[in-house]
Amino acid sequence: MSATHRRIVLASRPAAEPSVDNFRLETVPVPTAGPGEVLVRNHYLSLDPYMRGRMSTAKSYAPPQPLDEVMIGGTVGEVVASNHPGFKPGDAVAGFGGWQEYSVVGAAGLPMLQKVDTRQVPLSAYLGPVGMPGITAWFGLSKIIEPKPGETVVVSAAAGAVGSVVGQLARSRGCRAVGIAGGRDKCDYVVKELGFDACIDYKAAADAAALDALLADAVPNGIDGYFENVGGITLDVVLNRMNAFGRIAVCGMIAGYNGEPVPIRNPTVILRSRLKMQGFIVFENPAIVPWAISELSAQVASGRLKYRETIAQGLENAPEAFLGLLKGRNLGKQLVRLV
Amino acid sequence: MSATHRRIVLASRPAAEPSVDNFRLETVPVPTAGPGEVLVRNHYLSLDPYMRGRMSTAKSYAPPQPLDEVMIGGTVGEVVASNHPGFKPGDAVAGFGGWQEYSVVGAAGLPMLQKVDTRQVPLSAYLGPVGMPGITAWFGLSKIIEPKPGETVVVSAAAGAVGSVVGQLARSRGCRAVGIAGGRDKCDYVVKELGFDACIDYKAAADAAALDALLADAVPNGIDGYFENVGGITLDVVLNRMNAFGRIAVCGMIAGYNGEPVPIRNPTVILRSRLKMQGFIVFENPAIVPWAISELSAQVASGRLKYRETIAQGLENAPEAFLGLLKGRNLGKQLVRLV
Fold it and tell me: May I ask the CATH architecture of the domain B132-283?
């Protein structure tokens, strides 16, 4: 093929807050599928907070994104050429194609390239409620929080791709689901559209004491499970309202991603309330994926599990959309449509 | 009986650091055993950090110690009169007689009054390695850290009643045991007498970076399990050297007992290293006690599990000994001999 496509590489590492200058848009020839390889046209690119971590060289659970190489990222798309017996043109697939319009998947990537069923679940949902965010929510809730009916589960970034699933799954398990989100619009969405029992607008709270007062109203029986997506003051406030033997699934600490550590101010509550706090990375638990997908896809297909997408159009708008994600400007899953 | 005995009550609550003025020594008639009750002469009183928490009205897992009542505390002693069929004069017992020379145990206290076997294990050991401190060590290590052979386990306050057992049990499970303690003498004791693989003198480190350098030398393969007795800077430094999937048993945070919360400075490591951090109170897990006692008493009887005691003589010296305990002046279990 002599056609070209576009891709975005990491041009430089951010010193603190990232900017669009850290990325570079390139136009290059569309690659071809070699022996055993598959060429995929990417329809949607997923933007996720973890990408901020990969832009830095700070110690992490994953190696940093190399400079001048295509930014990593989850994608869904369509097979356009295949030299592999497991795939044929027209197959809908989910994988890690990165920030580019086409990608060739070879031996290294094939284990992560999954054919997906789009008869009842839309393609883009495999980047959201039936993809990594949904599976993350399922794992943290089911395997770390392990909620019992009647318990109260709180989730931060409740309007986001992960948080929105956490609360809805908690409801479906008989729990009181309380969200924390930034802004009245997000809170309305969380309660009225997603069906949470309550949602706290942390932007309406001037300080930790005000946030605590809002939380107190929303959790009259205290908190048994907390799904942590943000860290910082929110975590401090929630910790103080945890019931004895509460469980905290630590999925994200977005407040610390720009380099300034955000402390836990009073960790003695971990002892006082005999809390379990556990960090996790969903990729490391592949055994649960079929169970999670099974429940999540059934709930999306039936319309019971609701979700929204914020979609940027065109690869060239991916950096700006990513920065918006880090600032919480999206509602639901942040995607980039590439077709 | 018209004889008198002595007791110590809580006279006032400390604003910050407690002092001997918070306690009052009283001489009162020796109580008598009513129907169904048992009169015990207490031979040893146990002094423990948790008592500091009970002196305050701050929210805790247990109600505060009432003013003008006998300070709570674990004791071992001998039954001197009994109107209960389960006990007879001369029985060696462990219980919660409090800071006093005699105590009457009635319906409320009888479930916690245990006859103990002093043929192979000394009476005072039931307040140390075979008592609450030993059981605490056993629980946190066996049920939260769950160490595998070859792993590295670190424990703070390693020369103390709990820490000394944690490290020796970790060694007996095939682990590398590393202590953290204050002062060269304590570290020598931990390594040469208790058999830990290494011990770090935190007082020899001018700051967190210096402490980290000492720790780095002692844990060449990182840290898989941490038994936390102190909190503060030590916890921060240890957290940064935890291996992926490390487990932290939070047993004490003595650094925060005087009212100033001590933050965890970089909690994102909980996510980065997928750590589990769990607080626990040993009293809440009665089912494990027989298992713990069985292993601990066998190891004490055989001489394999070593321990030391710091013994103050006479009830009148209990307050001063307690303040010394909070400052780490004791080596091993702090007791008061009452006979």
Answer: 3-Layer(aba) Sandwich (3.40)
| Paired strand residues for B6 | B27
Identify which of A261, A266, A275 has the shortest CB distance to residue B268.
A261
Distance from the Cα of A186 to chain B's closest Cα (Å) equals 26
A260 pLDDT above the threshold of 60: yes
Cβ pairs bridging A and B (under 8 Å):
102
CA distance to B89, B107, B269, B292, B307, per residue, from B130 (Å) = 23, 25, 35, 8, 10
Question: What is the CATH number that goes with domain B4-128+308-337?
Answer: 3.90.180.10
pLDDT, tens digit (0-9, with 9 covering 90-100), for B251-295? 977 655 555 677 888 888 998 899 999 999 887 888 888 899 999
* Per-residue pLDDT, A257: 54
Structure tokens at A316: 């060239």
B229 by Cβ neighbours in 10 Å (0-12 / 13-18 / 19+) ranks as: buried
Burial of B288 (0-12, 13-18, 19+ CB in 10 A): middle
* C-alpha to C-alpha distance for B155 and B229, rounded to whole angstroms: 7
Q: How far apart (Å, rounded) are the C-alpha atoms in residues A52 and B270?
A: 17
Q: Which pTM was predicted? A: 0.82
Instruction: Find tokens 């424990």 and name the residue.
Output: B155
Give the three-state DSSP class for B219. coil
